[in-house]
Amino acid sequence: MVLIMGNNNDYCWKPATGSLMTRWAKEVNPQSVLPEYPRPQMVREEWINLNGLWDYSIKAINEEETSEYDGKILVPFPIEAVLSGVKKPLMPDERLWYRRSFEIPDTWMGQSLLLHFGAVDWKAEVWINKKKAGEHTGGYYPFTFEISEYLVDGENELVVSVWDPTDTYGQERGKQTLKPNGIFYTPVSGIWQTVWMEPVPTDYIKSIKLTPDIDSEEISIGIEAVLENRDLEFEAIVYEKGKKITSGKGRIADTIKLEIPNPRPWSPESPFLYDVKIRLIENEIVLDEISSYFGMRKFSIEKDEEGIKRLFLNNEPLFQNGVLDQGYWPDGLYTAPTDEALEFDVKTTKKLGFNMTRKHIKVEPARWYYHCDRLGLIVWQDMISGGGGMNALHHLILPNFARGLKIKDNKYKALGREERANRDNYKKELKEMIDALYNVPSIGMWVPFNEAWGQFDAVEIEEWVKRYDPTRCIDHASGWHDQRIGDIKSVHIYFRKLRMPKRINGRTVVVSEYGGYSLHEKGHVWCEDKEFGYKKFKTRNGLQVAYTSLINDQLKPLVQKGVSAAVYTQLTDVETEINGLITYDREIIKIDMDVLNDLNRI
After folding, report:
1. Where in the sequence is the domain holding 436, given as residue range(s)?
2. Tally of domains within the chain
3. Category of 34 on φ-ψ map: left (φ > 0), alpha (ψ -120 to 50) or beta
4. 288-308 pLDDT, tens digit each
5. Could you write out the DSSP letters of every residue in 442-488?
6. Mapping DSSP to helix (H, G, I), strand (E, B) and coil, where does residue 64 land?
7. 246 lies in the same domain as 323
8. For residues 203 and 252, is the Cβ–Cβ distance under 8 A?
9. Which burial class, exposed, middle or buried, applies to 166 when counting CB atoms under 10 A from its CB (0-12, 13-18, 19+)?
10. Which of 125, 202, 219, 502 has the fewest CB atoms within 10 Å of its CB?
11. pLDDT digits (tens, 9 = 90+) for 15-45
């Protein structure tokens, strides 16, 4: 059962003006905003969706909560987005305040109540009925507070304050900047993913860990639970198309292994998912139950029959042909207008012939990964970039004019990581990202650093990630500042022809960015008089001819020589960067879809 808890029903909401819109914007209903269950891999039946109209106010950073608010904002769209109804910037010396009320159903009384935030950028503090429930830093990851002790009968008040320094503080922020231009974009502040509540028993399942092993034909399942000073059991039941195939029990501290006979492997061609129910039990009584799913798959790097190291999926070599996907929307910025819109990007990527996408310097809502899982799209997941600003020497001169030079990444000041607290925050958020996404079947690659932006101690970081999650591959330094370690040699090639890199050192080679061909589609761009791209074309035919040559004459010969994957820049235009295969409003595919589909099936 889901309750959509609307607020301020008499308020007439409409998008702010002055921006490109997608077709899904007209479907946004303030009484039912992104109503889908937000966490597909850990589902309970009862929950309340708190998206909708909230009070908002922008105040000086040192001001405490005020009873006077500026107006209404549509959560979970960031305040800078037109779909928020506000479209105002939040400056580093300001705080954004949110307020709404809610009531708890009578049937939930006596249970614990969890308040969930999908993501809030950057520092969030939360109060229930004037009492502080907690705070969280990090703009891309889910967090939860247990709020039962703060509740009263009848109407309850929920207040959230947000501080977001954008690019003035050095925290992990991706492409956000206060001065958008070129490859850097409009900031995203405040709540930008679903806010929701659910009741749980006093003893409940807090998290789960699912690790498939196709070689042993088994799934390992562990849980973390909140318990009141007692040791309980948990039970896992696995289903294949609704039919129970295996089950097992263990103590809370255990990891149980369940045999999956003749497992159906997950792949882009056949993205089969098993269902699983996990129950917290005491003396055969079910205290808590969640539903989830998993895919039986294996990502690895092995030698092919010719002795070349390649990316493997399920013990077979697979060329991973992907596209760069930054996950921006002209009307919602980080937040897709609807779940159908979110799904559109995944479906279209597959229709264009790609079997992989690189989620570039952004972590998406859990439902985006769910769509990748069920539709069959491998994901390379970037960590969010942070640190200081761009350093011309390390970001432009050395990578382009001294490509063979090994650049050590322990020069913290030069790379924008001078402060120890800043480096520690990166490590904290890297762990949060992996914890949040570990169970996602489609994720096959972690990418800790991109093009030296905030890169530091990549050898240490790569070793830690490999220990923490040995089930996936790691591209320790995508683009440049290669430390000549790990299993992958990763290069970005834009202004010259594709070619095999030097100093491979026995690793597999991936062209983790290339292309960037741009075409201005009048009436479907963010700004008619500003554009950025790596190679400009005036007609769709010219673009199609160039793309065809790029794939047939440059990329395919490299595949024969040992390139294991490639990532074309990019899926959609983003603001004034117009080098997408699709326009920013998702209305025009710039190259014939059938041609793309044929070319991309390498």
Report:
1. 299-600
2. 3
3. left
4. 999 999 999 999 999 999 999
5. TEEEEE--BTTTT---HHHHHHHHHHH-TTSEE-SSBSS---S-SSE
6. coil
7. no
8. no
9. buried
10. 502
11. 998 789 999 999 999 999 999 999 999 999 9
